[in-house]
TrEMBL record:
Record keywords: Oxidoreductase
Name recorded for this polypeptide: Acyl-CoA dehydrogenase C-terminal domain-containing protein
Organism for this UniProt entry: Candidatus Dormiibacter inghamiae
InterPro entries in UniProt: Acyl-CoA_DH_C, Acyl-CoA_Oxase/DH_mid-dom_sf, AcylCo_DH-like_C, AcylCoA_DH/ox_N_sf, AcylCoA_DH/oxidase_NM_dom_sf
Gene3D superfamilies assigned to the protein according to its UniProt record, in alphabetical order: Acyl-CoA dehydrogenase/oxidase, N-terminal domain, Butyryl-CoA Dehydrogenase, subunit A, domain 2, Butyryl-CoA Dehydrogenase, subunit A, domain 3
Pfam families recorded: Acyl-CoA_dh_2
GO MF term list: flavin adenine dinucleotide binding; oxidoreductase activity, acting on the CH-CH group of donors
Residue ranges of every copy of the Acyl-CoA dehydrogenase C-terminal domain listed in the record: 247-385
Phylogenetic lineage: Bacteria, Bacillati, Candidatus Dormiibacterota, Candidatus Dormibacteria, Candidatus Dormibacterales
Length: 422
């Protein structure tokens, strides 16, 4: 998709501001890790770059950049601090959840002025302890806690996954809950992405009434069946292509940042056990750098192609000529598998950098070890099970249907009439 001059200029402005802020993000990273979250000051500073606005609708003053352009922003932020990259990724890539929830939710989320990410969600896979009961005029929700609530500390609303059952079997409902009705557990004690503040969430009370329009059958959100009043092609783009192309961008940014840091700290540094006085002059370093480059470049080529195809498919749908459901299913499966591979290759690239950075690279203050841990955490994300995603894509390649399950990454929804092969 070719961006307009206006969005290209806006992208350039956001990237310039992120690069200016980048050294500050890196400097604050250790403090954020120890706190288990970014400071409100850092959230405000990121907001001032425009990074939280890149995926917001134009009708409400958002930049509504293409997926390809959002990819660039997420990568640039992640280059300086993985946790900040994660927060921007979530804020950009999950805009399809409120957009899929209808016009009233869109108005609530994007209408008021706000500093920080607009969007957060939790427990949509759907390993949810949340329960929703339909009553006259709305829903009663209960249960919890809802886990891995990325961005929920700062977003005006968090969409909570809840299981409902009206007598015909359980199904997943996305419930939009205001910030002041939520409470946050101090339980984010993790190996990497420590500064994301992805804490577990409970309700302020035992139960909460939510008006009808804030609770949407998640199958409707995934299918985009509700009118949201938004006109841009972005809102017709495949949600998995949008979310996971940007997720790959986060891994790529982390690896690029680690590589830049390695080159910066290795000049003039001797290699123990050899006669090399300058690590950057050693052939073993050159071989390692070429392998690191190849892993990052392979991930980048795949992810950019997926972002570009996501934009193209959105433009087709917006023009009234959507691609066939079978193609969308195959593309979505491909994006998932290739994002998992991109995460793997970038983590491996950072592993090589870490192993060649000497013992001081294990220090808390060293960005390389932080990138090493953060990159591995991405590979462990619940939606990036490499083997499961590879099998599902391989099944489609072989003419079979993927495994049927509920949640964000389900693939059977694209071709609902197909015979399920087990």
């Amino acid at each position: 998709m070719v961006a307009t001059n206006d969005t290209s200029d806006r992208l350039a402005a956001v990237l310039e501001k992120v690069r200016e802020l980048g050294p500050t993000l890196r400097e604050r990273a250790l403090e954020a890790e120890r706190a288990g979250r970014q400071s409100d000051e850092t959230i405000a500073d990121i907001d001032a770059t425009g990074a939280f606005n890149v995926g917001s609708p134009a009708e409400f003053g958002g930049d509504e950049l293409s997926v390809q352009q959002q990819f660039d922003v997420v990568s640039e932020v992640a280059k300086w601090d993985g946790s900040c990259g994660w927060i921007v990724w979530v804020g950009a890539s999950t805009n399809w959840i409120p957009a899929g929830s209808g016009a009233r939710v869109v108005e609530e989320v994007y209408g008021p002025k706000w500093v920080g990410p607009r969007v957060a969600g939790s427990s949509h896979f759907p390993a949810s302890r949340g329960r929703a009961k339909r009553i006259e005029g709305g829903w009663i929700i209960s249960g919890g806690p809802w886990t891995f609530g990325s961005d929920s500390l700062w977003a005006p609303f968090t969409n909570l996954g809840c299981i409902a059952d009206d007598g015909e079997g359980p199904y997943l409902v996305g419930i939009q809950v205001p910030l002041d009705e939520l409470r946050f557990l101090d339980d984010w004690r993790v190996a990497g992405m420590r500064g994301t503040g992805s804490v577990s969430i409970t309700l302020a009370g035992e139960e909460l009434f939510v008006p009808d329009y804030r609770g949407v059958d998640f199958r409707g959100i995934l299918g985009g069946t509700l009118d949201n009043g938004l006109k841009g092609a972005l809102w017709k783009a495949p949600s998995l292509g949008w979310a996971f192309s940007l997720m790959a961008g986060m891994s790529i940014g982390l690896a690029q940042g680690a590589l830049e840091r390695f080159l910066e700290r290795s000049a003039g540094r001797p290699i123990r056990g050899t006669t090399y006085k300058n690590q950057l002059e050693a052939p073993l370093t050159h071989l390692m750098l070429a392998e690191v480059h190849s892993k990052i470049q392979s991930a980048t080529v795949m992810a950019r192609a997926n972002a570009d195809e996501t934009d193209r498919l959105g433009a087709l749908a917006a023009a009234g000529t959507p691609a066939a459901p079978e193609y969308i299913q195959m593309f979505s499966a491909r994006v998932l598998a290739e994002t998992a591979y991109a995460a793997k290759w970038c983590a491996e690239a950072i592993e090589l950098i870490q192993r060649n950075s000497g013992s001081t690279a294990i220090m808390e203050w060293e960005p390389i070890q932080r990138a090493w841990r953060d990159a591995r955490v991405i590979t462990l994300h619940g939606a990036l099970n490499l083997e499961a995603l590879s099998e599902n894509y391989g099944r489609l390649m072989a003419g079979l249907q993927p495994h049927k399950f509920a949640g964000i990454t389900t693939l059977d929804r694209f071709v609902p009439t197909a015979v399920q092969v087990t």
